[in-house]
């Protein structure tokens, strides 16, 4: 499964997407939440809920979304097939869907969104109308415009998508280990905070890093001699606390590294190694309130690294 496909449908516990829905009948609001996530091999099964507010009336609708190597399933049927490509067409529950673009822009209440997946939804083979859907990377659906006898619009007005993994490192280790770790994790579909990926132009470490750490489910620290002597990396280490799930030892020994609560990996193992990636998944929490408990021994990690 290509990571470029998964990023349009991130199933991360703690995600909250709030929409404004407009139609001829009036206005309503929807609050979609990813409550919990279960991983089974290549499957990600998300328990979600949709809270709809219309005037003084409020209702809640639980639902399940499953993402596999084949695509995204909703209500037990394949909703969006992977891999995605421009011009791709499929039928879901009698309606036809087509990938119009993988690089579209969309205007929403929160601003302009770039590099979106744009999908055309033909309702009942175009006889009842059609809609345009826009999915933003690492957010999901941001806008839908339906043009039919009963035209309506859904627009994202607020969102919160936690990072799954925060990569703590010293800038001197970017080329040797930190960037390969970040790229390998992101390439396997994880929502990763790594300064080169996420630090916005004009933002400062003093403001961006504390917010990113607070918003991350767990963390990995690239422990090196430089890391252990610099102020900012050690602050990140302290801020992560119990959420520090992984420590990658780079030119240091376990005795010097310190954080015994974390699972230790060695930088001798190539970050893109599939075996290494598989070590991470069981340790990720299924919800924001569940911290990793399962541990992999350092002996096993060293055995994999040398294998």
Polypeptide structure, described:
The chain has 307 residues and is α+β, with helices and mostly antiparallel strands. It folds into two domains: 3-160, YmcC-like fold, CATH 2.40.360; 163-306, Rossmann fold. Helix content is 20%, strand content 45%. The chain is built from eight helices and 17 strands. The strands form two sheets. It has a twelve-stranded antiparallel sheet with strand order 6-5-4-3-2-1-12-11-10-9-8-7, with no helix packed on it. It has a five-stranded parallel sheet with strand order 14-13-15-16-17. The longest helix is centred in the middle third of the chain and has 14 residues, at 174-187. The radius of gyration is 21 Å and the shape is elongated. The two termini are 26 Å apart.
